[in-house]
Amino acid sequence: MKTSPNPDRALTADIGPSPLGDESSEHDRDAESQGRLCETVSKNLGGRVRDLRKKRGLTLNELSGRSQVSRAFLSAIERSEKSPTLPIVVRIARGLNVSMSSLLGVEPAATGVASNRSADQVTFRDPQSGFERTVLSPLREGGGAEIVKHCIPPGQSSGLLPVYPTAVEKHILMQEGELTALIDDQEYKISSGDTLSFMIESSYRLCNEGSVPCVYIVVMVERG
């Protein structure tokens, strides 16, 4: 007995794979690419610290005094034997008088219109907390404004972050989860869609006390 073709099946075959599946695969590829880039950034960090230190004519002892990071730990970082946490990286950048993004290897963009494509965005992942910092905006010579994205896993924090060498204003736009900011001994809580702005005049801490990842955009503006 001859069966008639199933029109629904034929239609599905003509349509091909689901667009959603394609988007999912593309997202997975982007995530894998970003993960590899993150590993490369961490692996190259020691060399960047060493090169910038020597370029500025600093000894390990001098950089230790300027960054408040022990000489032994700096030496281990330069030899890629130790992976620094976010607060340590910020302190080293301050000691070298460069932005954290510059220390991580982000090159200044050309003048005029500049883009920073997703696949090229540099991410630093804290080896202890899993805190992620992704540079979204092109880096400009002379500072100005910078846009980054932070992602804090549940129950983790940025650690105690130091003051920058120059006056910096920070603007936070929450995307997912809830953020607790500890600034000047005061606690501020914001959730999806909320914003928070403050001048970095003392050490501060950003925490995720919730059960889901906390994701937010940060705009930093130099005022000094």
UniProtKB/TrEMBL annotation:
<dbReference type="InterPro" id="IPR014710">
    <property type="entry name" value="RmlC-like_jellyroll"/>
</dbReference>
<protein>
    <submittedName>
        <fullName>Transcriptional regulator with XRE-family HTH domain</fullName>
    </submittedName>
</protein>
<dbReference type="InterPro" id="IPR050807">
    <property type="entry name" value="TransReg_Diox_bact_type"/>
</dbReference>
<dbReference type="Pfam" id="PF01381">
    <property type="entry name" value="HTH_3"/>
</dbReference>
<dbReference type="InterPro" id="IPR010982">
    <property type="entry name" value="Lambda_DNA-bd_dom_sf"/>
</dbReference>
<feature type="domain" description="HTH cro/C1-type">
    <location>
        <begin position="49"/>
        <end position="103"/>
    </location>
</feature>
<feature type="compositionally biased region" description="Basic and acidic residues">
    <location>
        <begin position="24"/>
        <end position="33"/>
    </location>
</feature>
<dbReference type="InterPro" id="IPR001387">
    <property type="entry name" value="Cro/C1-type_HTH"/>
</dbReference>
<dbReference type="InterPro" id="IPR011051">
    <property type="entry name" value="RmlC_Cupin_sf"/>
</dbReference>
<feature type="region of interest" description="Disordered">
    <location>
        <begin position="1"/>
        <end position="35"/>
    </location>
</feature>
<keyword id="KW-0238">DNA-binding</keyword>
